[in-house]
Amino acid sequence: MKTVLALVLAFLVTASLAMAQTPKAEVAPGVSVTRKTYRVPDNEAPFYNFVEKSEAQKASDQKFVAAVLERVPDRGRAAGMTIETGMRAFLAQNDVATAAKRFNQAYLLDPQQSGIYHGFALVVATRFNDFAYADELFRLAARMKSPALPLRADHGRMLLIAGRPVEAKPLLEQAVKDTPDWAVPRMNLAWATLQTGSRDEACRLAAQVRGEGMENIERDLAVFKQKAGC
Asked: What is the pLDDT of residue 16?
């Protein structure tokens, strides 16, 4: 037993040291994130996979930015429009690769915008199942400029999928306040509450599920009621 405990402790210490030694990269003035890379084309990964760009690539980036700013001179507005295009690709078209490309383009325009980090979090959670990095990006998105109303709802849902209902619950509680007419965070809050051991409260919350997107969660609500015994 002592041997097993010693091995577990050694593993935890090693994991902690590895996390502490993970390199960080500055992505905006005073803003750093973990330098994570993925085996996909660089423009389909957050921050272009942190690749060291060639002079030709840098010139191409500058040409793109100049062309966009000629049409929309305000960097923040231009980035916001590009983020919206990425979100449409992600949500309406289920095209995660194109969404990532648009979020990278928005990053070139204005790296201070919350939607870039929000979008990247959705990409890494959906495409790479990297929930730890998604959590880091969601938390960063909350500190950046102009966070979107669905930010806490998306963050909470990701934590719920990752099996972290205790962390998801306060985010989903706030999401219901932020978007009271949206059924999805209400449904996810009921699940988080059930998974943290409060069946009666979860059933009460499930009875209050209503609003936009209800048609998308009716089956989920039926499964919930059966499982919870509401």
From this structure: 45
